[in-house]
Amino acid sequence: MTGPRLRLTREERRSQMLEVATDVFYERGYDQASLQEIATRMGLLKGSLYYYIDSKEDLLFDVIRTAHDELFDEVAGLAAGPGDAFERLERVIHGHVGWICAHLRWTRVFLHELRSLPVPRRQEVLASRHPYQTLLRTLILEAQRTGLARPDVHPPLAALTLLGALNWSYRWFTPNGESKPAAIAATIADLTLHGLRLPPQRA
Amino acid sequence: MTGPRLRLTREERRSQMLEVATDVFYERGYDQASLQEIATRMGLLKGSLYYYIDSKEDLLFDVIRTAHDELFDEVAGLAAGPGDAFERLERVIHGHVGWICAHLRWTRVFLHELRSLPVPRRQEVLASRHPYQTLLRTLILEAQRTGLARPDVHPPLAALTLLGALNWSYRWFTPNGESKPAAIAATIADLTLHGLRLPPQRA
C-alpha cells in the first residue's frame, strides 16, 4: 500500500455511484435508466455495482434517501441554531432553497421518481418526510407561543404552504438565470414570514 | 336518427378519451402506458383512437394542453372580475386550489410527464405557462400601483412563490383528508397576501 492511491475507497465509490445514478435517472427517467449505463459512466463493469446494491430499485431508494437525509440534516442544524423562531425560520428558508438550487437533479429525481419505488419503500420515504414537516410546524408553533406570529394561522397548513413555495424553485430555477438562490429565498421569506408575523403592538 | 342516442358525439368521445388517457398515464406513467389499454377501457378497438390522434405522444400533448387551458380559463375569469387587486388575487387562489384538488390526476400528469414530450412540444407548453405567471404578476403589480401592496417585493419572484404554494397542494391533498380545498386556499391567501399587503397607514 505505498505509492499514489489510484483506487477510490468504498465510501468514495458509493458517493460517485449515487451522483452518476442521479444523472442517469434524471436524464432518462427511472424506467429507461439502466445499471449498464451507470456502470459504464463510472468506468466499471456492471457486475461491480452489485458490490454496493442488489438492484436498480435499491439504487433509486439510496438516491432518494440520501437526498432527503442531506437536506434534512442541513435544515435541522439551522432550525436548532440561535435566535427567535422567525430568525431560525428565515435561515431554514435560505438553507432549503440553497440546497435545492445546488442539487437540482437530485431534487427532481426525489420528487418525480418516488412513485417508481414499490409501496413499502415509498411509504418509508414518505414517513421520513414527516420529521421535516414537523420541524417547520414546530418553528411556526414556537413563533405563535412566543407571541411573534398570528395565532389564527393553522400551523400544519402554514408549514405545507411554506414547503410548496420552497420546493417549487426546483421547477424553474436555472443556475445561469437572473434570480439567485439568495434572492429567491428572500422573497419567499418576505411573503410567508411577513404574512405570519403579528404586527408590533402599539404602545 | 330516431330513438335513443346510443353513440357519443365526436366531442364527447374526445373528452372521454382525455379522461381515460389521464387515468392510464397517471397509473402507469407515460412510458408504460399503451394506446391499447386506453382503447380497451373506452370499449373501443385501438384503431378507433386514430380518428382523434396520430400517436401516444399526440394524446399526452392533448391531455397536458387541455389541463393547462382549463385551469387558465378558470383563473383568468376570476382575475378579470370585480374588486381590488387583493380581492381578485384571493379569488384566483381559491379557484386555482379548487381546480387542482378536483383534477389531481390531470395535474400530476401535467407536472410530471411534460418531460416525456419532445422538446418543441414541451417548449410550446412551457410558453403557454408564461401567460399564467403574467396574470399573477400583473395582479401583484396592480396591487403595488394602487398602493395596497408593499413596493419592495419583486413581482416575478412573488408570483413564483405564490405559484409554488398553490401547485404544491397536488402532492399532499387527498379528497378524504382533513384539509378541504377552501381551508388550504385560505391559509395560502392568509400567508402570501397578508405578507404582500402594505399595513394600513396611521392617521
From TrEMBL, chains A, B:
SUPFAM superfamilies: Homeodomain-like, Tetracyclin repressor-like, C-terminal domain
InterPro entries to which the protein is assigned, alphabetical: Homeodomain-like_sf, HTH-type_TetR-like_transc_reg, HTH_TetR, KstR2_TetR_C, Tet_transcr_reg_TetR-rel_C_sf
Keywords annotated in UniProt: DNA-binding, Transcription, Transcription regulation
Regions recorded as binding DNA: 34-53
GO MF, one example: transcription cis-regulatory region binding
Top-level taxon of the source organism: Bacteria
HTH tetR-type domain segment(s): 11-71
Record protein name field: TetR family transcriptional regulator
Organism this protein belongs to: Nakamurella alba
